[in-house]
Design goal:
5 helices, single chain, binds 2-oxoglutaric acid, four-stranded antiparallel sheet, binds fe (ii) ion, Jelly Rolls, eight-stranded antiparallel sheet, 246 residues, 12 strands, globular
Length: 246
């Protein structure tokens, strides 16, 4: 098991990180899905945009079936975020949320995803369906995902839809989820800046959970910038993780 070598290393906290007091609301226990309100501060949102300016390229997907097919599935643009001090604090927050046992080497580089009008990401799971992508030499599969909303300018559409989740009944959820969606469409989170959705991708036995299927719905006007924080089952190499930067 991956966890054994990592367990020796205590998790080191950066005392200079100032974590915002975000609110957590469980939407689903199985699969585990938790809504996090206020997960990113306004300063962090601005900083993330600042350090990634002009670095976006057309998003890739794991089982690339040629450029053409790829762009129809995921029409957004994406970029990896350089790991400076602000980004390391966001990483620390994402790790602490998951307990104290996950070392930072299990995190992929944070990824920003940008959508302009009419762009979307078709239904997919974040866990790799191709076992070749989930081998232990490359960190195993994706245990969990955070999808955070970094910016949303004059947006309509662009929610994050989980078709297999049951819509909750209390109207208070309508602040965060689109209550106008028909019941059979599952749950659609609104793109509210600063919020994040956390969910688990794998079942107890490590196989992928089909119920974690989701999509980035088309942005019908305005634009959206989101961020993926993916935690692997095991450590990733320094080469994949990239360097810490000042
Ligand atoms: O854009 C969204 O709402 C979801 C994006 C997503 O699922 C992904 O990038 O893996
Ligand atoms: Fe996704």
């Amino acid at each position: 098991h991956h966890h054994e070598d990592d367990a020796q290393k205590p998790m080191v906290l950066d005392p200079s990180c100032r974590h915002p007091p975000f609110q957590s609301h469980i939407l689903s226990r199985s699969p585990l899905v938790i809504y996090l309100s206020g997960f990113l501060t306004a300063d962090e949102q601005a900083h993330l945009q600042d350090i990634t300016k002009d670095t976006f390229t057309h998003s890739a997907v794991a089982d690339a079936a040629g450029e053409q097919g790829l762009r129809q599935t995921r029409t957004s643009q994406s970029t990896n975020v350089p790991r400076d001090q602000v980004v390391r604090c966001i990483e620390e927050r994402a790790l602490l949320f998951q307990g104290f046992d996950i070392p930072r080497t299990h995190l992929e580089p944070l990824q920003l995803v940008k959508y302009s009008k009419d762009q979307h990401y078709h239904f997919h799971t974040d866990w790799f369906t191709n076992p070749a992508h989930a081998s232990s030499v490359t960190g195993g599969n994706r245990l969990s995902s955070f999808f955070a909303y970094v910016s949303a300018e004059n947006i309509t559409g662009g929610g994050t839809n989980f078709p297999m989740l049951a819509a909750p009944s209390n109207k208070r959820w309508c602040e965060y989820i689109d209550c106008d969606e028909p019941w059979e469409n599952g749950v659609t989170f609104r793109p509210i800046v600063g919020s994040a959705v956390f969910w688990e991708n794998l079942l107890e036995d490590g196989t992928g959970d089909q119920r974690a299927l989701h999509a980035g719905l088309p942005v019908t006007s305005g634009s959206k910038l989101g961020m993926n924080i993916w935690t692997r089952q095991g450590p990733l190499s320094d080469e994949i993780r990239g360097p810490d930067v000042p």
